[in-house]
TrEMBL record:
Gene3D superfamilies, alphabetized: Tetratricopeptide repeat domain
Comp. bias intervals (Polar residues): 109-126
Protein name: Transcriptional regulator
Signal peptide range in chain numbering: none
Residues covered by region (Disordered): 1-20, 97-146, 166-203
Organism: Streptomyces griseoruber
Comp. bias (Low complexity): 97-108
């Protein structure tokens, strides 16, 4: 990266909030407004990856001027207005370092790994680059493009002192707080003056244990009650990365642990219905993997991205992500991992109503699974056994409308599941109830649905609750069938996740 020769006279000036843009959002949430932006983009043939975090960055003033794709979308949404009317700076004032006024120049680059955040950096968002950041193909595992701002921000949000107040205290890890300064506030000394404590193997071990504990809690209780509590540990994990370590092996463990934690937090968002948040967390993990050349982490990130894309109604993206995961994972030597990734691909093909593609992927998944476990199987795959194989296959047949076959596999999955995985038992039984209901067996569906309701005292999952709600709608015309009215009454009285 080329070094700037410009020394900023006001390096500590914070970004100025974009109040005009915030006013335009009105009473909508950032996520709702982001959805409107994506819809407006489709109307004019643009492609933007707008989410709630992007809207937040605009409103916070971090994005002083949008790239050209976003400019066209915003002007389409608010006809007759200019970028200045929307609260953005004129493009000429942010078009590259050389065009900045002296007071707007970014901080000079240094060789220190700690980066300051007092002034927004020049990125593909702010520099007015001709190609928007989100037109890259995230499923190209052999790309040479600069990572998008979304994928890079986990490592570009500032030094350890800036975000060290976030901690992994509840999970056994904390990072040192920033220095206080007279009169209040915290110190943001130049990078050369900072003294950041180096982290070691104990912090890496605590981070790895945090990932295990989150997965264990999710297996038992579901995601809804965990997601908000997991955000601070994730911020602290990336602060540890920025603090640095003297040993490469420890650095590798920290990067891998932070990436796995991002995936775990992403899954909590995914399972609780926060799809935009999940996509962002998975992108963080993917960026971490690519920056460090961690193929195992990259395969895991693509695996979860494929699953999310299927659930979010983007089956073609699910196929591409799963295929990318398989390309990355092939050298790792784990047939069970390749089996799971083939199932992710099968789910995408099923969503596309491509029965042939789905059956071929399922056949590969079964053949690879039969090769048995190996020492190369990732630790995070402990959930993947015969029950999960049957459950994911059930979801494929359900997407294809083969309710009888779907119900058979879902029932087998629930019967095979280890009692430790309470959430998955509830998930497979909910799948069974829905398949039975849609397959014209309302009484059996009601019995399965009641079993799920019994488990909801232990499991909090918006995903499972959504499935039960769909089953209830299907069963409404069959109130007189045995057990259906009881199921409907109990379902109606069950508190929903907030």
């Amino acid at each position: 990266m080329a070094s700037s020769t410009v020394t900023p006279p006001r390096p500590d000036r914070p970004p100025r909030p974009n109040l005009a843009f915030r006013h335009l959002r009105g009473q909508r949430s950032p996520a709702e407004f982001a959805a409107l932006v994506r819809r407006a983009a489709r109307e004019i043939g643009e492609r933007v990856s707008c989410d709630a975090r992007y809207i937040g960055r605009v409103e916070a003033g971090e994005i002083r001027c949008p790239n050209y794709a976003y400019e066209r979308v915003f002007l389409h949404m608010f006809p007759g207005r200019t970028l200045t009317d929307l609260g953005f700076a004129p493009r000429a004032s942010v078009r590259g370092r050389g065009a900045r006024a002296a007071g707007d120049a970014p901080p000079a680059h240094t060789t220190s790994p700690a980066l300051t955040t007092s002034e927004p950096r020049v990125t593909s968002e702010t520099r007015g680059a001709g190609e928007p950041y989100d037109t890259q193909d995230p499923y190209d595992t052999h790309h040479d493009h600069e990572e998008s701002d979304v994928l890079r921000r986990a490592f570009m949000t500032g030094g350890g002192a800036t975000v060290a107040s976030a901690s992994l205290g509840p999970l056994g890890l904390a990072v040192p707080p920033p220095r206080s300064r007279p009169g209040g506030g915290t110190s943001h000394a130049p990078a050369a003056e900072r003294r950041v404590r180096r982290v070691g193997s104990s912090e890496a071990g605590a981070l790895e244990e945090a990932v295990r504990r989150i997965r264990l809690l999710d297996d038992r209780h579901g995601a809804d009650g965990l997601y908000r509590r997991a955000a601070a540990p994730l911020r602290a994990a990336y602060a540890l990365l920025d603090a640095g370590t003297t040993r490469q092996t420890t650095a590798d463990r920290l990067h891998s642990g932070a990436g796995e934690l991002a995936i775990s937090v992403g899954w909590l968002a995914h399972d609780s219905g926060r799809f935009d948040d999940a996509r962002s967390h998975y992108a963080e993990a993917l960026a971490t993997a690519r920056m460090t050349g961690d193929q195992a982490l990259e395969a895991h990130a693509f695996c979860n991205t494929a699953f999310l894309a299927r659930d979010a109604g983007r089956p073609r993206e699910a196929v591409r992500a799963a295929q990318a995961a398989q390309r990355v994972a092939r050298p790792l030597g784990s047939p069970r991992l390749m089996s799971l990734l083939a199932l992710r691909e099968a789910g995408g093909w099923a969503g596309l109503a491509d029965r042939t593609g789905c059956e071929q992927a399922l056949a590969r998944a079964h053949a690879l699974y039969e090769r048995g476990p190996s020492d190369a199987d990732p630790e995070w795959m402990t959930f993947y056994g015969e029950a999960e194989l049957a459950g994911l296959e059930a979801q494929c047949w359900s997407a294809l409308g083969d309710w009888t076959r779907a119900a058979r596999h879902a029932g087998r999955a629930a019967d095979l599941q280890d009692p430790h995985f309470t959430r998955n038992i509830a998930l497979y039984t909910a799948e069974l109830a829905d398949d039975l209901a849609r397959g014209g067996r309302p009484g059996e569906a009601a019995v399965a649905g009641l079993r799920v309701l019994d488990l909801l005292g232990q499991v909090q999952s918006s995903r499972i609750q959504g499935m039960l709600a769909g089953t209830a709608r299907v069963l409404l015309p069959h109130r007189r069938a045995g057990g259906v009215q009881e199921f409907l009454d109990r379902h109606a009285s069950t508190p929903r996740a907030v």
